[in-house]
Request: fold
Amino acid sequence: MKKTLTALLSLLIYSGLMLSSAGCSRQSGSESAEESLSRQWVRELRSVSKLQLASMSVGKTVKSERHDWYKIGKRIAVYSYDTYLYAYIDLSELEENSVEVDEANRIVRISLPEVKTEIAGREMEMHKEYENIGLLRSNIDSKERAEMKEKANKELMKELGSDSEFVRVLKAEGEAKARVYFETLAAKRGFTAEVTIKGSDSK
Amino acid sequence: MKKNITIFLLAALIIAGIGIWVWSSVSTRNKEPEVTVAPAKMSHLGAIARLCTVELYAEVPVLDTIGNKVIFGIQKQRGRISFDIENLDIDPTADTIRVRLPKEHIEIYESTEPGSWEVVDTKHLSLIGSSKMTAEEENAVKRRIAENSRKRMYADGTVKRARKEGRATLSRLLAAFYNRTAIVSD
Reply:
C-alpha cells in the first residue's frame, strides 16, 4: 500500500513537472512565434520613377442578408470601402530628346510617354453603413466580412477593366494635368510649352 | 386502447415536429447568406503632381488584441512613397536650380489580389464571451496594422531610400526641363 502511494505520488510530481515545463516551453515557443510573426513573411521593394497626375477613389458597397422563417429577427449588414487608382507617366520612358527647347521662339516642346492607370490598393477598413441583427440572430464575424469584401473586390476588378469608364475618365484627367503641369513649369521659365502625349486623343 | 392510440399519435406528432426542425436547421446551416454587391461609384477624382519613387508589396501576419478579443489573420499590403512636386519653389533665372524635396507621402493599402485579408481565427481571452469581432474592433486592428507598417518603413530605411531616389529623379527631371544643373536637397 505504502509502495503504491509512493509510486502514485512520484507519478503525480513527475507529471506536474512535465506539464509545467511544457507550459514554459509552450510559452517561450509562443513568444518566439509572436516575435517571428512580427516580421513580414514576404516583402518586395522596388524603385520606380512615376509622376502621378490624377487620383481616383471608387467606392463599393456590399450587403449580407439572411432570412430564416423559423428564426426571429432580421440579419442584415451593409458595409462599404474605397479602392484607389492613379493615372501616371513612367519617367523612365522619357527619352533624351523628349524635351526640346526653342530659345528663339521661347517654346519648349515636350513629348511625354503614354499616361497609364493602375490600382494602388484598397482601403483596409470596412465602414459599417447599416446593421440590423436580431437579438436571437448571430452577429457578423470577421471571416464573413472578409468574404463579403472578397466578393465585392472580385466584382470591382471586372468593373475596372481597361475599357471601363472609370479608367477612361482617370486617364483623361491625368493627360489634362500633364499638360497643365508642364505648361506651368515652362511659363515659370518664360516659355510656352507644346505638350504631346503618346496615345492621347486630345491635343 | 383509445388512450394508447392518442398517446401514440401525440408522440408521432412531437417526433415529426422535432424532425422537421432538425432538418430545417441542418439544411439551412449550409446555406450561405445572400451577399449582394452594388455597382462601383466614383467617390473622388482629383489632379495631382506626385513623384513616386518606391513601391512596396508585403504579406503581413497580424496578431492583435482588442479588449478581450484576439484576432489572427494574414494581410497582403501594397504601399508607395511619393512626393508632392506641385508647388516647388523654383527660381528659373538662377544658374543652378535649387529646390528642397518635400515631405514624403506614405500610402499603405490592402492589395486587391484575391485573399488579401484572410482571417484565420478569432478568440475570446476568457471562457465566456463572444469571440466575434465587431466591424469597429476590426477597423481598430487595421488602423494599427497600417501604423505599424508605416513605422517599419522609417525604421528599416525604406523612407530614406525613397527620399534618396526622389532627389535623384527630381534633379534629372528639372535639369532636363531647365537645361541647367538642378540640385535637390533633403
